[in-house]
Specification:
The chain is mostly loops and 85 residues long. The chain has two helices and two strands. Bound molecules: iron/sulfur cluster (2 copies).
Length: 85
């Protein structure tokens, strides 16, 4: 199991998100079901923006809603939910 206490976990760790601030244009946001989650850390590892922290909180200011985290989650614990504007 991956140690989520490590400060740097993601493969890609852009300073402020490679896509810049995404809050105004993101179409979907990831929502983690902590009942299903086994804390493996794969979502944080594969997030290209490096915006999932050690507590599995997603920084929605920089998350671009790509869904890679949901796709990689072995427990299917992440749902991509359409943004309501
Ligand atoms: S949808 Fe998931 S993988 Fe994509 S940027 Fe947001 S947190 Fe990262
Ligand atoms: S990949 Fe899925 S099971 Fe693993 S830490 Fe992320 S949400 Fe939890």
């Amino acid at each position: 199991m991956i140690d989520l206490s490590k400060e740097r976990l993601a493969m890609s760790v852009p300073g402020e998100g490679a896509a810049g601030k995404t809050g105004s244009w993101r179409v979907f946001r990831p929502v983690v079901d902590r009942e299903k989650c086994n804390a493996c850390g794969l979502c944080a590892l594969y997030c290209p923006e490096g915006v999932i922290d050690a507590d599995l909180n997603v920084d929605l200011e920089y998350c671009k809603g790509c869904g890679i985290c949901a796709n990689e989650c072995p427990k299917k614990a992440i749902t991509m939910v359409r943004e309501v504007r």
